[in-house]
């Protein structure tokens, strides 16, 4: 992605490197979210407070949970939930305390544009749109994947950051959209499948989608 941003400026904040520059004539800040909900929330909060971004687009990989969601497919999130959040019996399972909801929705307009960009960038990939579950676990056993599927039958995919970024964007009133390519099925094969996918294709897919998004803006 940085190869597409000639003359980018590196800014260090909160121990992260933020890359500020222009992509297809638009001002962008590119950064790795880091892994897990807390790390991603910090990254999102810095983007909002320090860089004053007008919206956040997240790209990355996820484990497929939905029945037809296969390795190489694309999932565009319309909402996020934290599958490892449970403050019951004080609050219902999954509900984010004091928010009165368990789900944060992505911005419909930005999500529509991201979906169109994903379709243009990866025309051969099957594309799904719906709920994505986030939690601080790399789900890597068939038993755990089955338990998640039973508890959250509408969840298309599982990853470790999206719900946190969605909540931060809600707090800051920022439009948010997220797309994930499926690297594994969160099952007993997940570790090998994930490593192979991340090594061989993930960043190429992300860069292609972001380029298509900005080119079509
Ligand atoms: N990201 C990609 N694959 C994942 C998995 N199986 N669990 C959690 N996050 C992931």
UniProtKB/TrEMBL annotation:
Assigned keywords, A-Z: Amino-acid biosynthesis, Hydrolase, Methionine biosynthesis
Keyword Amino-acid biosynthesis included in the entry's annotation: yes
Metabolic or biological pathway, per its Swiss-Prot or TrEMBL entry: Amino-acid biosynthesis; L-methionine biosynthesis via salvage pathway; S-methyl-5-thio-alpha-D-ribose 1-phosphate from S-methyl-5'-thioadenosine (hydrolase route): step 1/2
Protein EC: 3.2.2.9
Keyword Cytoplasm recorded: no
Domain annotation Nucleoside phosphorylase: ranges: 10-214
GO molecular function: adenosylhomocysteine nucleosidase activity; methylthioadenosine nucleosidase activity
One Pfam family here: PNP_UDP_1
PANTHER family reported for this sequence: 5'-METHYLTHIOADENOSINE/S-ADENOSYLHOMOCYSTEINE NUCLEOSIDASE, 5'-METHYLTHIOADENOSINE_S-ADENOSYLHOMOCYSTEINE NUCLEOSIDASE
Protein name, UniProt field: adenosylhomocysteine nucleosidase
Protein's organism: Ramlibacter tataouinensis (strain ATCC BAA-407 / DSM 14655 / LMG 21543 / TTB310)
